[in-house]
Design a protein that fits this description.
The protein has helices at residues 19-28, 47-54, 70-76, 88-96, 102-109, 122-126, 128-139, 165-178, 214-225, 253-263, 308-314, 333-344, 384-399; strands at 5-10, 32-37, 80-86, 114-118, 143-144, 148-151, 157-161, 189-195, 199-200, 206-207, 229-235, 245-250, 269-272, 279-281, 302-304, 322-329, 348-353, 364-371, 376-383. It has 400 residues and is of the alpha/beta class. The protein is globular, with a radius of gyration of 24 Å.
Amino acid sequence: MDKPKVVLGVSGGIAAYKACELLRRFTESGHDVRVVPTASALHFVGAATWSALSGNPVATEVWDDVHEVPHVRIGQHADLVVVAPATADMLAKAAHGLADDLLTNTLLTARCPVVFAPAMHTEMWEHPATQENVATLRRRGAVVIEPAVGRLTGVDTGKGRLPDPAEIFEVCRRVLARGSAAPDLEGRHVVVSAGGTREPLDPVRFLGNRSSGKQGYALARTAAARGARVTLVAANTGLPDPAGVDIVRVGTAVQLREAVLKAAADADAVVMAAAVADFRPAAYAAGKIKKKDGQEPDPIVLVRNPDVLAEISAERARPGQVIVGFAAETDDVLANGRAKLARKGCDLLVVNEVGERKTFGAEENEAVVLGADGSETPVPHGPKEDLADTVWDLVVRSLG
């Protein structure tokens, strides 16, 4: 089979060196990559590097190999074009249809999905001109990944950092998997909770659960690849930040509730994939609980945590908001799932069977998505991204 053809555009920012890692991930996973750097990008990483890593020739000018009409052919033959880093200048040129070099010509001729991974200083990213250019590109169907927050050049810190190349690759992989399908969550704000809450007993110990957060992160990653603005409320995970996602970190169920309610105020959909503790200790010991010789420990008294899913389902922050819950069951999976769906009042409930060696921490999942309308959508055993895409398919259908 032909390898998927990827055009990696590199514009002139200091983050250009990170595109080498993105290129490596594409080539090692079986993609045929053609790197098209701008002239400015070559000040940061030379053509020889791009050629050696990709195994393909590198050109920046429309005048190179004119007989092959590169300014047309490269874009025409691509299955995906990704620009990383995408500077403010490149976003402006792409939004306004300028074509003064090989990369901008390629963007105009591409009829495949296009992904931009911006990287620039915070002030440049937040400037109204850049934001309008981003909105224009997204409206036309391009996926513009939100930049990360972190260290920029010099001593500056803020939003504008290029997301981790591994996570940019994951977004591109999901975009490629969807083929020519439009980014159907464009213009939507979605909230996803992930991970497992921890309820402290003392400064050392806590009550927790086995959730790794992988399913929630897959939901966030696939939503970003489908064009959504994503807020990820993450509870106690050790996973890398998904590209293009705003992350709010929490620890306990009460903190998760506060973060979800705040983020849901303007959200089109909320997906509660986190494993939220039903109970917490009634009292917190300020010092470590000591073991006393010859004495049994005092019983731990528990109190109920707030039911976040039921609360946001009963009091929708805006009309038409879609609420999705998750149910981890160990027996009578569908029966218990149906009962929980009715009790919680959400629109969709993802039900799966869990156990010590099932689902938790795994890369795959198997589930049935129950709808308040009585529907059942089985999702066979497979990558958690596949379940995530099924959930978003149903959310898009509910949003209308």
